[in-house]
Every structure is written in structure tokens, then in C-alpha cells.
Specification:
This protein has six helices and nine strands. The protein is of the alpha/beta class. It has one domain: Vaccinia Virus protein VP39 (Rossmann fold, 3-Layer(aba) Sandwich), CATH 3.40.50.150. The strands form two sheets. A seven-stranded mixed sheet has the order 3-2-1-4-5-9-8, with helices on both faces. Strands 6-7 form a two-stranded antiparallel sheet. 40% of the residues are buried. The chain binds S-adenosylmethionine. The site of S-adenosylmethionine has 20 residues, from α1.
């Protein structure tokens, strides 16, 4: 597992991973500017929370939030009394932003700094009831990275478990945060997940950025088939 070596007060905040400098790249996004002005910040993760409510998960369900950034979804899920939350990001700075915000509640979350395209600690996760990704998968342009992401997902999501993926839509932006993205629609995500998953919900969503501009997302909710 990569070590955390920075917090919001550090200057030149760095992760100690030797495998890539992507963590540092993202760290700067959370420390150089006000994260609440970032092009993906949501005061409340409403579309994700609405879909999660439809899963009817038990409060002790194991919920992995990949590339969670500084998202308030952790705050919201804690407020809803979910007791088994996992927050992953490649950037420890991102996770520290949440920790600083939620105070002692941070002790109720399992924090994992790890790279979804080269997982180490993530490989040791327990089986999951829900995999939640908003605005992360679309950064993985290489097929190898996508395969690693989906291999991890398949290894970790329980039969009967849920997969919630929100990504830039086909008519959405071609880059985010200075990085190119691969855009999706519901059918493309369905193909990516494969025949072991049933699509329960899919909708297009216009997200209003803090600067007022619109970014088009697609939200999808899948369930892993019991007989898979
Ligand atoms: C656009 S932000 C979205 C953050 C959050 N999901 C949200 O909706 O607010 C993308 C996030 O993915 C994280 N990320 C990028 N590449 C990653 C990787 N290979 N493994 C884990 N996290 C990654 C970034 O650090 C960043 O926090």
C-alpha cells in the first residue's frame, strides 16, 4: 500500500509512490486551488445517492468508492449510517481533504491510497456490495488499464452486488482536469461490464459545474447476476 505523506497544509504535497507521478498530479488539483471550485465538485452527490438508495443495501453493506477525490458522498453515506465504507483515491491529498472535513468520523472509513490501474492494497479488499465510480473510469484510455480496472471489479463485486458507474457521456467534454477522457454511453458500459451483469438503470445527466457550465454525464447502475 502506498504511504500517505501529505495533508492539506503541506506545500509541495506528494505521494511516495514510485510507480507513477499521477498521484502528485492529482494532489495538486486538491491543494493548489479550492477543490469546491473544481470542475467535478458536487455539493451533494444526488444522482449517485438516488441510485444507491434504489439498491436497498443494508447499513453494513461494503461500499467501495473508487477515485472518490474530495467528494461529499462519504459525508452523505456516513450521515445515512452506512458502517462499512471504503474510500479510494490515487491521491492521498484528495482523501485528506475529506478526512479534514469530517473530523473524527474519518475513523469510520477505510482509506486506501492506491492506483486502480496498478492495484496493490485494493487487491486485498473484501467482497463488495457496491462499487461506486463517478468520473474516474473515463480517464483510463489504455485498454490494459481498463482491463485492470474491470478485472479488479469482477474479482471484488459479490454475486448480487451492484456497480454504479458515472462517466462523461458521448456528447460530453473530451478532457477533464487537463487530461483526455474516453467517453461512454450506457451501451458501451454494458459491453465493458459483460454478460454477468444486468443493467438496472441508465440515464443521461447534465451536471452543472461550479462555474455554471454544463458537463454531460451518463449514470448507470448494474447488478451482478446471482448465477454468474
Ligand atoms: C474528476 S475526479 C472525480 C472525483 C470524485 N469521484 C467526484 O466525483 O468528485 C477524478 C478522481 O480520480 C482519481 N484518480 C485518477 N486516476 C486514478 C487511479 N488510477 N486510481 C485511483 N484514483 C484515480 C483522482 O485523484 C481524482 O480524485
Amino acid at each position: 500500500m502506498k504511504q500517505e505523506s501529505c495533508n492539506l497544509n503541506d506545500s509541495g504535497c506528494k505521494t511516495t509512490s514510485k510507480t507513477d507521478n499521477l498521484g502528485e498530479y492529482w494532489c495538486a488539483k486538491y491543494t493548489d486551488t479550492d477543490y469546491t471550485k473544481s470542475g467535478w465538485y458536487e455539493k451533494e452527490s444526488k444522482p449517485s445517492l438516488d441510485l444507491i438508495a434504489q439498491c436497498n443495501l443494508k447499513k453494513e453493506a461494503t461500499i467501495l468508492n473508487v477515485g472518490v477525490g474530495a467528494s461529499t458522498i462519504i459525508d452523505s453515506l456516513l450521515a445515512k449510517k452506512y458502517t462499512n465504507l471504503i474510500a479510494n483515491d490515487i491521491s492521498s491529498c484528495a482523501l485528506n481533504t475529506i478526512k479534514n472535513r469530517i473530523g473524527n468520523l474519518k475513523n469510520n472509513v477505510n482509506w486506501i491510497v492506491d492506483d486502480l490501474t496498478n492495484p496493490t492494497a485494493l487487491n486485498n479488499l473484501p467482497q463488495l456490495n457496491l462499487w461506486h465510480d463517478r468520473a474516474v473510469l473515463h480517464f483510463f484510455l489504455d485498454e490494459k488499464d481498463q482491463k485492470t480496472y474491470f478485472d479488479l471489479l469482477h474479482n471484488k463485486v459479490k454475486k448480487g452486488g451492484f456497480v454504479l458507474i458515472a462517466a462523461f457521456n458521448l456528447d460530453g467534454a473530451t478532457s477533464c482536469s487537463g487530461l483526455p477522457v474516453l467517453r461512454y454511453n450506457a451501451s458501451l458500459l454494458e459491453v465493458k461490464l459483460g454478460s454477468e451483469y444486468s443493467m438496472l438503470k441508465a440515464f443521461d445527466y447534465e451536471y452543472k459545474m461550479p462555474n455554471g457550465a454544463i458537463r454531460n454525464y451518463v449514470y448507470t447502475l448494474f447488478q451482478r447476476k446471482i448465477e454468474s
